[in-house]
Design a protein that fits this description.
Order of helices and strands: EHHEEEHEEE
Oligomer: single chain
Number of helices: 3
Shape: globular
Largest sheet: 4 strands, mixed
Distance between the termini: 34 Å
Number of strands: 7
Radius of gyration: 17 Å
């Protein structure tokens, strides 16, 4: 049996385009080209029945290395903590004050985009510091 080599991460959300654009900024991803004969995503959405407009969005790693992120509109809001979350690896290889400075700088950039900061989890004997956050719709992620 062959192993899976590619996957996408799917987010349930209220406003797929807004959340996709946030994650494009976080990760340096891009929105994919609109389907087929459509010049823009707005043109594509206008071609759909009203109830399907804006029902989904995606973002992709322009280098093709990272997983695709897919955002789908759902009627219910987020009510509990995520069971899965993304760790955004901005401090890899850094320790101490240098790591904290990198986490804080990235946190400030993401807060300006609409993210919400959590409480810093300081380094201990086993783990380096990390910073829990929430995206523009409350989905948890960590700066690691």
């Amino acid at each position: 049996m062959a192993s899976v080599k590619e996957f996408q991460v799917t987010f349930d959300c209220a406003d797929p385009e807004r959340v996709a654009r946030f994650w494009c900024e976080v990760l340096g991803y891009v929105l994919p080209a609109p389907p087929g004969e459509f010049a823009t995503w707005d043109d594509f959405n206008r071609s759909l029945p009203a109830e399907q407009r804006g029902a989904w969005a995606a973002c992709e790693d322009p280098s093709g290395v990272g997983p695709r992120l897919y955002f789908q509109r759902v009627p219910e809001g987020k009510v509990v903590k995520n069971r899965v979350h993304l760790d955004v690896r901005v401090g890899t290889g850094l320790v101490g004050e240098e790591r904290l400075a990198r986490l804080e700088a990235e946190c400030a950039r993401l807060v300006a985009l609409g993210a919400v900061r959590g409480r810093l989890l300081p380094a201990d004997e086993d783990n380096e510091s990390c910073l829990p956050m929430q995206d523009v719709e409350g989905n948890e992620f960590c700066l690691d």
